[in-house]
Amino acid sequence: MLWAASGENPDSPRSEKSSSSIPKYIPAYISLGNAYFYKKRSYGQASEYFRKAAEIAPSAQIHNLFGTVLRTQGNYNAAIDEYQKAIQLNPKYAPAYMNLGITYFYMNQLNQSIARQKEAITLNPNYPDSYFFIAQGYDRENNAQQAIMYYRKFLEMSLEQGQYAGYAATARERLRSPWRRRSVKTDIKSRAPERLLVPAPLLFPASPATRGFRWGTKRKSLTG
């Protein structure tokens, strides 16, 4: 049954049977949600499985996963609700603060985004994502000094990890190229989905933060 619900093939009859035969088998819901989200990019089905898991066994981790699916669908307010539920269940759960900050960034609520990311790194300073999104927030506010500091901290933290390649390329480009102001629009469907379950404790690796953003006119460089 674990194999059937592993998410290798979420459309397999055995996978469906494993979740329907034991309606409260939470690992099946989580595994299927992850598979539909990451492999199939079927966000509606992924959302339904995580919703069921959250209703049966609410936890900070499950609400965090559900929130990320909702964010990918562009349901920002619903995503925020899920992240806040995660924080209520576990006020020291850093990934929820990080994801809350990312969501506020996509909503162009930069002060909220930066504040939530700083809370995340206060709880756990080992999240490169948080440093990157703090830098992005300051960058969009035209605060070059703070943006430079956090881009450099991100590059130091990410240590050339492959999952951060998109973020690292953006950070290096922002440090060496003319500073450009970007619009607030994003295209959620154009971004690669964020993996939900591995590696722990970071529940999903980063996807390029600025994919889907439009770049405007050239301005002075961050470093000069």
Gyration radius, rounded:
18 Å
The portion of residues assigned to helices is: 55-70%
How many domains, as an integer? 1
Give the integer mean of the pLDDT values.
75
Order of adjacent strands in the largest pleated sheet: 1-2
> What order do the helices and strands follow?
HHHHHHHHHHEE
Strand content: 5-15%
User: Which segments are poorly predicted (pLDDT under 50) over 5 or more consecutive residues?
Assistant: 1-22, 182-221
CATH superfamily: Tetratricopeptide repeat domain
Count the helices. How many?
10
Please identify the structural class as seen in this structure.
Answer: mainly alpha
CATH class: Mainly Alpha
Based on DSSP secondary structure assignment, what is the total number of beta strands?
2
CATH architecture: Alpha Horseshoe
CATH topology call: Serine Threonine Protein Phosphatase 5, Tetratricopeptide repeat
Shape: elongated
Largest sheet: 2 strands, antiparallel
The N- to C-terminal Cα distance equals 59 Å
Detailed description of the structure:
Strands 1-2 form a two-stranded antiparallel sheet. The chain has a single domain (58-221), classed as Tetratricopeptide repeat domain (Serine Threonine Protein Phosphatase 5, Tetratricopeptide repeat). The chain has helices spanning 13-21, 26-40, 43-56, 60-72, 76-89, 94-106, 110-123, 128-140, 144-158, 165-176; strands at residues 178-182, 215-221. With 224 residues, the protein is mainly α. It is elongated.
